[in-house]
Fold this sequence. Notes:
Chain A is globular and about 55 Å long. The longest helix of chain A is centred in the C-terminal third of the chain and has 21 residues, at 279-299. Chain A has helices at 13-23, 76-85, 100-114, 128-139, 155-162, 178-185, 194-197, 212-220, 238-244, 279-299, 321-327; strands at residues 4-9, 28-35, 51-53, 66-69, 89-92, 117-119, 143-149, 152-153, 167-176, 198-206, 230-235, 250-260, 266-276, 304-306. The first copy, chain A, is of the alpha/beta class. In chain A, strand 12 and strand 13 form a beta hairpin. Strand 13 of chain A pairs antiparallel with strand 13 (266-276) of chain B, so a sheet runs across the interface.
Amino acid sequence: xxxxxxxxxxxxxxxxxxxxxxxxxxxxxxxxxxxxRDPSSLKILTDNVPVYSINDIENxxxxxxxxxxxxxxxxxxxxxxxxxxxxxxxxxxxxxxxKIPEYFPAVDAAAKKGGNVSIISVGWDPGMFxxxxxxxxxxxxxxxxxxFWGKGVSQGHxxxxxxxxxxxxxxxxxxxxxxxxxxxxxxxxxxxxxxxxHTRECFVVAKEGADKAxxxxxxxxxxxxxxxxxxxxxxxxxxxLNRDHSGIPHGGFVIRSGQTGVNxxxxxxxxxxxxxxxxxxxxxxxLVAYARAAYKLHKEGASGxxxxxxxxxxxxxxxxxxxxxxxxx
Amino acid sequence: xxxxxxxxxxxxxxxxxxxxxxxxxxxxxxxxxxxxRDPSSLKILTDNVPVYSINDIENxxxxxxxxxxxxxxxxxxxxxxxxxxxxxxxxxxxxxxxKIPEYFPAVDAAAKKGGNVSIISVGWDPGMFxxxxxxxxxxxxxxxxxxFWGKGVSQGHxxxxxxxxxxxxxxxxxxxxxxxxxxxxxxxxxxxxxxxxHTRECFVVAKEGADKAxxxxxxxxxxxxxxxxxxxxxxxxxxxLNRDHSGIPHGGFVIRSGQTGVNxxxxxxxxxxxxxxxxxxxxxxxLVAYARAAYKLHKEGASGxxxxxxxxxxxxxxxxxxxxxxxxx
Lengths: 329, 329
C-alpha cells in the first residue's frame, strides 16, 4: 500500500497525540517531525524517524505528503498556516472562532499559489461539533442549537489563574449544568444565560504565605474568564494537583432542538456528545483522518483552503466507496 | 432567489412529510406531486400545486429540479430508483441495507446515462446514523461501533403481527435496553447479543372470540421478528390503540467507543442520538436537505449515484461557505 507520509510541526501534546494517532492507521506513516527546539535535544516515541529544525522545512518538501501543524492558534498558526500552505498540503486546528474569517482567505491564497490543499480548524470544536451544528441546522431548519462544553480542562482558564499573584499552579474545569442540558433535551427551547449553561471549578496551589481569600476573589471576579459564571475555588497541595488533576479530559454536547409538522407541533432532538479521556489525543486523531482526506483531494487536483464543512465523510476513510456502502451505510 | 423545484413521487407519510419540510426551507419549492392513484382524488396540503399521474412523469421533466422518491424499499424503489434516475436528479430513502450493493450500481448507471445526480439511502438509518458510524470509525480506528434503535414504532414488526390470525390491529415498539447503553457508554466495549440490546413491546387488538394465548405465543415465537428478543404483549381495545398509539415516534443511538494512547490506555466515547416525534417527518426533512445538495452537484456538472458518505456537509446548507465559516464553524 502507498502510505500517506505525514510530517508533524511542533512536538507538544498535540504533536505527540498525532504521532500516536498515525500508529493506529494502516495507511499513514510518520515521515518526520519539525521543531523550534534543537532537533538533537528532542526524543520522540517512534524509532528511526528524523527530527528536523523548523528552519529547514523547505528542504523537506519531497519527504512529506501532508503536514500537520500542531502549534497554537494565538501566535503560531496565524504565521505558519499561510506560510506552510504554500509549500505543503496542511492540516491545522486553528480554533480562534472569531478570526477564522480572516485566517481562511490567507491560507486559501497560499494553498492555491502552491497547488496544495489545506484543511483549517480541524478538531472537535471547531470541527466535529461544527459538523454536528451544520447537519442539525440543515435537517431541522426551524430549531435552535445548543453547545455545552465539559466536563473538561480549559487550558486558557487554567493559564489565567496561574498568572494571579500568589498562585503556584492551577487547573480549571468547565462543567455543563445538568439541569440546562435536561431542559434542552426536553424540547422546551429555553433561553439560557452564560451562567445557566456552565459552572467553573478551580483547583489552585497557593504559594507559601499567599493571601488565599484575595486569590479566590481575583479568580471569581476576573472579567470574561470567570465573572459571568458560578465559580468554585479549592485550594490544594501541589502533590494533590499532580495526583488528581494531571489528565486532560474534555467533552461536550451539541444539541439541535427542532420542530416539524403543519404548525411545528412535532418535536425532534438531535444530540452529538463527546466524552474524551484526552483532549489532545482525540483532537490529533481527527487531524490524521483529515490528513488522509487532504491528500486524496490533492491527488484529484484540488487546491486551496477547506474546512470540515467541505470534506465528504467518505474522504476520511481508508476504505473504498464500495466497501463503505456494503459495511457501514 | 432561484428556488430548487422539488417533485414528490408517492403521497404517503413520507410524501406528506416532504411537503411539510419544503415549507420550512426558503430556497426550495414544491413543484408537483406524482401518484399512482387517480390524481383528481388526491387532496394535498399545499394550494395551487398540481398532482399528476405517475404514468405521465416523463412529460414533466422540465418542471422539476429534483425528484424525491417517497415509495417503499421492498417493491417501489428497486424499480422506480433506476428508472427515474435516468430522467431526473433523485433522492430516495432506500433502506434495505443488504441490497444497497446491488441498488447503487443500478441507479448509478441510469443517473450517469441521464446526466443526473441521484443520492440513495438518505434518511437516518441508513443516513445520519451511517454518517455517525463513518466519522466515528475514521476518528477512532481502534474501537467498536454500537447502534441502538428506539424507543420507536417498527412498521415492519407491526405489520407482521397484523398478519397473525385473530389480530385486528397492532403496534410494535422497539426499545433499547438501558443497561446495555450504559455498559457501552462506560467504555467497557461489551459483546452484546441481540436479546441484550433491544426488547420488543406489542400492543395488540384481538378480534372478537380470538384465542389470545395463541396470538401471544405466535408473536413471541415468530422467527427473525420476535424469537430472539424478550417480547411483551398487551391486549388492548381498538379505541385505546387509536388514542395512545397513533404516533410514529422513533429514535436511537450510535455510539463509538474507542481508545488512543501508547497502549490504548485513553478511552473516548462519541455518541450521536435522535429522539424523534415523527419518524417520517424527520426522514423527509433529511431528504429535502439532500435534494438541495443533489441540485448543487448537478449544476456543477456531477452525475451518477451518491450516498450520504459522498456529500460534503456544506452542500446541505442554503448558506455560502463564507457565512457558514463565520457563523457555524
